[in-house]
Write a structure and sequence with these properties.
Elements (H helix, E strand, L loop, with lengths): L3 E4 L3 H13 L3 E7 L6 H5 L2 E6 L10 H11 L3 E3 L9 H9 L3 E2 L4 H8 L1 H10 L7 E2 L6 H11 L3 E9 L2 E6 L5 H16 L4 E5 L4 E10 L5 E13 L2 E7 L6 H17 L4 E10 L9 E7 L6 H8 L3 H9 L16 E8 L1 E2 L5 E2 L2 E7 L6 E5 L6 E2 L6 E9 L2 H13 L2 E4 L4 H9 L1 H4 L7 H9 L7 H9 L4 H4 L11 E6 L2 E6 L12 E5 L2 E7 L13 E3 L4 E6 L6 E2 L4 E7 L2 E6 L4 E6 L6 E2 L4 E6 L5
Parallel strand pairs: 1-2, 1-4, 2-3, 4-5
Antiparallel strand pairs: 6-9, 7-8, 7-9, 10-11, 10-13, 11-12, 12-15, 13-14, 15-21, 16-17, 18-20, 18-22, 19-21, 23-24, 23-26, 25-26, 27-34, 28-30, 28-33, 29-32, 30-31, 32-34
Helix pairs in contact: 4-5, 12-13, 13-15
Length: about 625
């Protein structure tokens, strides 16, 4: 058995791996960048090694630094987690060549499944059903457009080296193809160093079903049943569950057997996931489920599989990497109950899901019987602009789907984080959506109804009154009683915006200068009203950078006339592209943005002025 392990990752997955390794008596080594010097995974490990500056390309993505850290600390093995270098075959081979144990699949398996077009050809040869599409080498834009026309719109453009929803574009009409292709290739080149794409048929009512597989060096391969990851926003998974709603025993058997064939086709060892797309228009049917891709690593959503099977997948990874056989046979694995996982992101749904960064002055995650929390941050820490904005995973297990869903909702309701914004309220709304509650979700649900889910909720009148009275001295409280009707309300600032709050009850002996209101996964700050206070005018045309990032495209020039919602520029930050648009019809009066420039948070990028008709 491995005695010491370096985790080549950060955040919640590093903490989760450390937890299992420690339970197995394995010494753990963390690596960290400048930004992560005080991170939870660093604090949790037995030892930690600094590997460079904050940007991932200068630290977590530099394989030589990872291997050097392992040697410097005497680690026997390297676990890559997910993301970063986890599916980099060259890095995996370098680890092996350095005499270290690679906790993952063989480099040849990673290579075989790393490019979507080659993987689909391989799967077709292995008898695994694949989605209709174009997998050819000709990448001329006109040829790709022609192939898309043959397939029939809508189509998906997908980077062959992509993953995690990056390097993917949905195109619904021929007129949109050229722009979508250029954007997809640009993102693919920046994220994966490979602009090659494939085209495939877009399924109208798609469901994302994936199967957890596991192989060892002794020729054994098993599956641990399926997960449903259909609730997605812009191809990013939001809530995952296991098993899949509506999956009957016969369809499950065919699907899982196809996943086993896929894993055996590449002589797979370790944890992996075979992802399928299903046409859910007539329920789940084996003849309407097709292979999409294989993830040759542990998945973000692996906890739901652990919860329904009772298996610790990281323990299995470490045992198999040490040369042991898979601990259980296929006939010893079964489904117990239901599990759901919600990804908690530091982002503001009401502002287009822009990532939210800064200190975590308040960080409380809801707990419940049957609940589990995986996180990589802590109260008093901070969310950095350099990495993915996921800060925690909340997982719930129950005897039934409804029980798991209700437990997860309760956990989110009891979550309170400040001043960083999160998507907790959005997740609560998603869990309560009638289609999701009925198990009739498809990948387009958030696209159809997401605006309502993302609406910025307000605190209840009762919560506002309670908070306001905690800011009112006892000596003044009598002025707010029913015998003085003109004083039943008073102005306050709620997150900088004036609100009139009904006042009732007793004041405070020692009134607070401001109060935090935590309710339904949200936190607001209530402050005293001050003349001249409050938010900037709603009609302001000032365009500020919402976070530190790099400008990758500027669509307008100074003096241009623009219409409300028109794209002004594109900012790349926290591994995603963010489009900034005109708030109203007007003219570009000021422009301080150039493609390629790095900008800081709240930097003035542009100013739009309304055109006054004479």
């Amino acid at each position: 058995m491995i005695k010491s392990l370096l985790i080549a990752n950060r955040g919640e997955i590093a903490c989760r791996i450390i937890r299992t390794a420690r339970a197995m008596g394995i010494r753990t080594v963390a690596v960290y960048s400048d930004a992560d010097a005080q991170a939870l995974h660093v604090r949790s490990a037995d030892e930690a090694e600094h590997i460079g500056p904050s940007p991932a390309r200068e630290s977590y993505l530099v394989g030589e630094k990872i291997i050097a850290a392992a040697k410097a600390t005497g680690a026997e093995a390297i676990h890559p987690g997910y993301g970063f270098l986890s599916e980099n075959a060259e890095f995996a081979q370098s680890v092996i060549d350095a005499g270290l144990v690679w906790v993952g699949p063989k480099p040849s398996s990673i290579t075989a499944m790393g490019l979507k077009d080659a993987a689909k050809k391989l799967m077709a040869d292995a008898g695994v059903p694949v989605t209709p599409g174009y997998l050819g080498e000709n990448q001329d834009p006109s040829h790709l457009a022609s192939e898309a026309g043959k397939i029939g719109y809508p189509v998906l453009i997908k980077a062959v080296a992509g993953g995690g929803g990056k390097g993917m574009r949905l195109v619904e009409a021929p007129a949109d193809f050229a722009d979508a292709l250029a954007s997809c290739q640009r993102e693919a080149s920046a994220s994966f160093g490979n602009a090659h794409v494939l085209i495939e048929k877009y399924i109208q009512r798609p469901r994302h079903i994936e199967v957890q597989v596991f192989g060892d060096a002794h020729g054994n391969v098993v599956h641990l049943f399926e997960r449903d990851c259909s609730l997605q926003r812009r191809h990013q998974k939001v809530i995952e569950e296991a098993p899949a709603p509506g999956m009957d025993a016969a369809t499950r058997e065919e699907l899982c057997c196809a996943a086993i064939r896929a894993a055996k086709a590449v002589d797979y060892q370790g944890a992996g996931t075979i992802e399928f797309i299903a046409d859910g228009s007539e329920g789940l049917r084996a003849d309407r489920i097709w292979f999409m891709e294989m993830n040759t690593r542990l998945q973000v959503e692996h906890p739901v599989t652990e919860e329904i099977t009772g298996v610790d997948l990281v323990e299995w990874q470490l045992r198999v990497a040490s040369g042991e056989a898979i601990p259980l046979r296929q006939d010893q694995l079964s489904i117990n109950g239901w599990a759901m996982e919600a990804r908690l992101y530091a982002e503001d749904p009401a502002k287009g899901f822009l990532p939210s960064i800064g200190p975590l002055d308040l960080f409380q995650l809801g707990e419940a019987p049957g609940g589990r929390i995986d996180t990589g941050v802590y109260e008093g820490g901070e969310v950095s602009p350099f990495y993915d904005p996921m800060i925690a995973k909340l997982i719930a297990h129950g005897e039934s789907r409804d029980e798991a869903r209700e437990t997860l909702s309760d956990m989110l309701h009891d979550t309170a984080i400040w001043p960083v914004r999160t998507n907790a309220a959005f997740l609560i709304a998603a869990l309560a959506h009638p289609e999701f509650a009925a198990g009739e979700v498809d990948t387009g649900l958030i696209g159809r109804d997401g605006e309502a889910m993302a609406a910025d909720p307000a605190p209840s009148a009762e919560a506002l009154t309670d908070a306001a009275m905690a800011m009112v001295p006892v000596s003044l409280a009598s002025g707010f009683r029913l015998n003085a009707p003109e004083c039943r309300t008073a102005p306050f600032l709620l997150d900088g915006v004036r609100v009139d709050v009904a006042l009732a009850g007793e004041g405070a002996d020692e009134p607070s200068t401001d109060m935090l209101i935590a309710e339904s996964g949200m936190v607001w700050q209530l402050s005293p009203w001050r003349v001249g206070g409050g938010a900037a005018a709603a009609g302001s045309g000032t365009i500020l950078s919402p976070m530190p990032g790099k400008i990758i495209a500027v669509e307008v020039r100074k003096g241009d006339l623009v219409t409300k919602g028109q794209k002004l520029l594109t900012l790349e930050a926290m591994k995603m592209e963010h489009t900034l648009t005109a708030p109203f019809d007007g003219v570009v009066a000021e422009l301080n943005a150039e493609a390629g420039a790095q900008v800081q948070v709240e930097a003035l990028l542009a100013k739009i002025e309304a055109v006054v008709a004479e």
